[in-house]
Design a protein that fits this description.
Layout lengths: L1 H39 L3 H8 E10 L5 E7 L15 E6 L3 E2 L3 E6 L4 E8 L6 E7 L4 E10 L2 E8 L9 E7 L4 E4 L2 E5 L9 E3 L6 E3 L2 E2 L10 E7 L2 E7 L1
Parallel strand pairs: 1-8, 10-16
Antiparallel strand pairs: 1-4, 1-5, 2-3, 2-6, 6-7, 8-9, 10-13, 11-12, 11-14, 14-15, 16-17
Length: 240
């Protein structure tokens, strides 16, 4: 009888210890999990920062008239509707053959398509538009140009390749033209495409497009430039 009573007390004691251990274990798990969530958790603002991307846009107007540039989020269902609303104007009254003000566009990562537009600052009937897809931290040239009376809008990467003692240039042309460096034909341009870098040593006549010398003497030697050209020669020279 005494042995049975002793065994019963031992069993009850053991059960009590196990119950307390389980509770402690459960509490420890809960505390650890809460701590992990607190350490890894981020505020909505922090998450927004990670989901928000930016792109820098630089506008070139090689049209034969002053122009305004517009940017708007692309909506598949509405297309270009609302693009030319005043609240989407980002670079106004850009003179012909000139560079407009830069614009930084912020967007949610899932909304990386935008509409771009250019419009005659005076004649509202002259409009052109295009759509492009952005990558985070993009640097882009937005070029308004004309070919055979047709208005066009192109988007290319803005980049540089500075090299000491030479002018490094890329050529964006409105048609196919022979390009020569120091009297030697190097390539033929493609309509609406930008060439690779060309290294020019002589600023006066080292570079010719369609047989016309492109004067680079206003540029800084060692720097990189984008040249927008037509059959009459240089229209815009923009430092990259």
């Amino acid at each position: 009888m005494a042995i049975k009573m002793l065994n019963r007390k031992l069993m009850l004691g053991l059960r009590d210890i196990m119950n307390r251990s389980n509770k402690g274990f459960i509490i420890a798990i809960a505390v650890s999990f809460s701590t992990m969530l607190a350490g890894c958790g981020e505020s909505s603002d922090e998450l927004d920062d990670k989901l928000t991307h930016t792109a820098d846009l630089y506008f070139i107007n090689s049209l034969p008239y002053m122009a305004d540039f517009y940017v708007d989020k692309r909506n598949i269902s509405t297309g270009y509707s609302g693009l030319f609303d005043s609240n989407n104007l980002v670079s106004a009254d850009v003179n012909t053959n000139d560079i407009g003000s830069a614009y930084t566009y912020s967007y949610k990562a899932i909304n990386n398509m935008i509409n771009l537009g250019v419009k005659d600052s005076v004649n509202v009937n002259k409009e052109e538009r295009t759509t492009t897809t952005l990558k985070n931290s993009d640097d882009l040239w937005v070029i308004a140009w004309e070919a055979s009376g047709e208005r066009l809008l192109s988007v290319i990467d803005k980049k540089s390749n500075n090299t000491a003692d030479v002018f490094n240039v890329r050529v964006f042309a409105n048609d196919s033209y022979d390009v020569s460096v120091d009297g030697v034909k190097i390539l033929t341009t493609e309509k609406g495409k930008v060439t690779e870098y060309l290294s020019i040593s002589h600023c006066v006549d080292g570079l010719k497009v369609a047989g016309r010398a492109i004067d680079l003497c206003a540029a800084n030697i060692g720097s990189t430039y984008l040249l927008v050209v037509d059959n009459n020669g240089k229209r815009v020279m923009a430092e990259e």
